[in-house]
Design a protein that fits this description.
The structure holds two protein chains of two kinds. Chain A is mainly α. Chain A is about 75% helix and about 0% strand. Classes of the chains: A mainly alpha, B mainly alpha.
């Protein structure tokens, strides 16, 4: 290393700046390449969903939509299964996330109290579950013995608290709420309940928004739990419906799947693109507004207690 | 609980008034913890207790704990079955390549983003690389199906045109392409998200170090290699340990959804196998045994990596 340093200080500034120019150009080229790789698949789905599907299948649609039509979207909006799935998912997201917060935040507060002597032991109780679990079958049988299989309840409560999120909240409360506030509150005769509701929660807006988003995205995208613990199609969330339509190629209720010949297949493809858009757009719409919170959440989590 | 209070009272006597206040309120902390503790107990610890099913014959009449004790019978059944090596190998191969390719990718991406001088472009790149993370597995796999569809998939065809994939390959329907497809689409989806933590670590590097480098005449490449990289090394190590602990935890969802009859020989991993035998065909004891084997191997991997890392770099998770 000493050698390279000597060398570079010996060489003229010019050659060093030449190297920097090449380096800078390489960085920009690489960033453009990455950008294209990330964006193009997304862009293609968008243009394919509004183009004539025959042209899409012939490979003629590459960068811009051609022969714009909204057939796929019309089919999607007529399909009642998608709307049932949407409604169920919204219920799971809203109720599930509220439950998550009601369970996670008080627990995180209790675990953040330095004068709470048992907190390390209880923390171990939570952390252990991150690395060891009974596995799928015992979990299934536990839920089954509680008579919760194929109920809406299980899809709401299956992940009532996520240990990783609990750690994020605990770390935030422990590090960013001044201990002086607690001392003052105690002198005023404030209880933990009051202190938590009147002081901790209002000062934890940042971490609350992070966790709400983490939990909400989890519920929105959750597929595994619905597959395992629910077989009632009335309770199926959007992701399960999507799988039936997108991957198992089930016919569309409005009948387009039953149409004979190439036309039927190609419009089925167009419906797929439209469904991908319709199911992903809600998350992507809020994304720009919540991006900074997500980044913040990753950072709080990284500090780790 | 009463006992705990007593212990504290003796320890904190000198704090007088404050200790008294604290003690009278400890029960409130327990109340606040209660829902989380109960939930974890029901959905994590009771199933852990149910793991004994792996050593028992399951009977409908007596439930999890009532069956006849059969020792390691079901483990032996798994180890000697013809699915043992394929599932173990597939799981290892998938996670090995996911780590080898997927672990450095966000580090390199963070380095690149950190080097971008144009503020607006930097912001654009950062924002777009996070987007795929929010796509659900189902949609992700559907996108893979349509974009790599045989003959019609636009990206599949592109790869064939530039000669990266043989013309005759059915990308979504063959065992040989399953691993690269699984790994690379995984990198596509999570690279940006995983880079956030490194970008943050890079942005906290002391700028004086950069100035010192400049005075020494180092160019940007040398600065990156000698300043930026050491700065994020502790973060890298911690994340590496966490990744190693999940070496056999190949995400069930994606492998399961990408699975079809044509690629099953490469896509049947332990978790999908547990689902198939344990839930689908109701071999509860056998499924539990296979799942327990998976958990134990993961745990061992985590411990070993943690130990190696502590020995060699002084950073450890536990």
């Amino acid at each position: 290393m000493a050698n390279t340093k000597m060398k570079s200080s010996d060489t003229f500034m010019k050659s060093s700046s030449m190297a920097d120019k090449i380096f800078g150009a390489a960085v920009i080229l690489l960033s453009i390449l990455i950008f294209v790789i990330i964006v193009y698949p997304l862009w293609f789905v968008v243009i394919a969903s509004i183009s004539n599907s025959n042209l899409v299948n012939q490979g003629l649609v590459t960068f811009w939509p051609k022969d714009i039509r909204f057939y796929g979207y019309e089919q999607v909006f007529q399909d009642s299964r998608i709307w049932t799935g949407y409604m169920n998912t919204i219920i799971y997201v809203v109720v599930g996330t509220v439950l998550n917060m009601v369970v996670t935040m008080p627990a995180a507060y209790a675990l953040s109290r330095r004068d709470f002597k048992q907190r390390n032991g209880i923390m171990m109780y939570f952390v252990f579950t991150m690395y060891f679990s009974g596995g799928l079958v015992p979990l299934y049988m536990t839920i089954s013995s509680l008579h919760l299989i194929s109920t809406k309840t299980i899809l709401i409560i299956i992940v009532a608290v996520n240990t990783y999120n609990l750690i994020i909240a605990r770390t935030f409360i422990a590090n960013s709420i001044p201990e002086d506030l607690y001392e003052a509150a105690v002198l005023d005769g404030c209880s933990h309940f009051n202190y938590f509701i009147k002081v901790v929660l209002p000062l934890s807006k940042a971490v609350i928004s992070v966790l709400v988003l983490y939990y909400a995205v989890f519920h929105w995208n959750d597929y595994f739990n619905a597959l395992m613990f629910n077989s009632n199609s009335d309770h199926a969330p959007l992701q399960i419906v999507l799988r039936e339509i997108l991957l198992l190629n089930q016919a569309f209720s409005s009948g387009s799947g039953g149409v004979q010949g190439g036309y039927g297949q190609s419009s089925a493809d167009q419906v797929k693109y439209a469904i991908i858009i319709v199911s992903t757009v809600p998350i992507l719409c809020v994304y720009p507004f919540i991006q900074k919170y997500f980044e913040k959440g990753v950072m709080i989590g990284a500090v780790k207690g | 609980m009463a006992k705990a209070k007593k212990v504290q009272a003796s320890g904190n006597k000198s704090f007088g008034f404050r200790a008294g206040k604290y003690l009278s309120h400890t029960w409130q902390l327990w109340v606040m913890l209660l829902p989380a503790v109960v939930y974890i107990f029901i959905f994590c610890y009771i199933p852990m207790y149910g793991v004994q099913l792996a050593f028992r014959e399951y009977s409908f009449a007596t439930g999890i704990t009532g069956g006849k004790w059969v020792g390691f019978k079901y483990f032996e059944q798994y180890f000697t079955s013809n699915m043992f090596w394929p599932t173990l190998r597939n799981t290892f191969v998938l996670s090995f390549f996911s780590i080898v390719v997927g672990f450095p990718a966000p580090i390199i991406l963070a380095m690149i983003i950190n080097q971008l001088r144009h503020k607006k472009w930097k912001r654009v790149v950062q924002t777009t690389v996070y987007i795929p993370y929010f796509i659900s597995v189902v949609v992700m796999v559907s996108m893979i199906q349509v974009l790599f569809m045989n003959d019609k998939g636009v990206i599949g065809n592109f790869l064939k045109q530039i000669g990266l994939v043989a013309q005759t390959t059915n990308i979504v329907g063959s065992a040989s392409t399953f691993v690269p497809l699984y790994v690379l689409t995984g990198v596509w989806q999570s690279m940006g998200w995983n880079s956030i933590i490194y970008i943050a670590a890079l942005s906290s590097v002391d700028t004086q170090l950069y100035d010192a480098c400049k005075i020494d005449g180092a160019n940007r490449w040398q600065t990156m290699w000698n300043i930026d990289f050491p700065a994020i090394l502790p973060t890298v190590m911690i994340l590496l340990i966490m990744n190693m602990g999940n070496v056999l935890n190949v995400g069930f969802d994606k492998a399961f959804l990408m699975q079809n009859d044509l690629n099953r020989s490469a896509s049947q991993v332990i978790s999908t196998y547990v689902y198939q035998v344990g839930i689908k065909s109701s071999q509860f004891s056998f499924g539990t045994a296979v799942g327990l084997f998976n958990t134990v191997v993961n745990f061992v991997f985590l411990m070993v990596t943690n130990w190696i890392s502590k020995r060699s770099t002084g950073t450890g998770l536990l």
